[in-house]
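Protein modeling request. Please complete all fields; requests missing the sequence field cannot be processed.
Requester role: graduate student
Desired output: 3D structure, token encoding
Chains: 1
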Amino acid sequence: MLDELNALHLWDFRIDSLRTASNLGEDVLTVLATRDFSYCHEAQVQFFDTVYMSCPVDFSHAQFAPASDAEIERIRELTEFDDETKVFRIIEDAGDSKYERHHFIAASRAVVTIETVYYYKRESLGPNESVAEWVT
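Delivered output (136 residues):
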């Protein structure tokens, strides 16, 4: 799941929302990813029942991975969560030793959706393409 997202080598990431999914009764933190937010987003990651977040609203050139045991223990010092909670590491500017930063999100699960969602009207859509619901 995270490997598919990492394989896209997307440039820009943005926290879109944190809201309760009424049909699920879970809080959902949604992160969008793209090469250019002017036109669309190409993937989204939904983190369910997020209990901890140390992450900017906008970040770039990120790779997602499970946190190490040591990182999980450091986060446990900051907040309480059960053993079922997963901690995800977001490596911003991965591979650039000067600018690389690590961010963390702890949640019950993460779901990655690979789909291009356009921010403008389009007549013909291909597989895994849609128009944002707010486009009129």
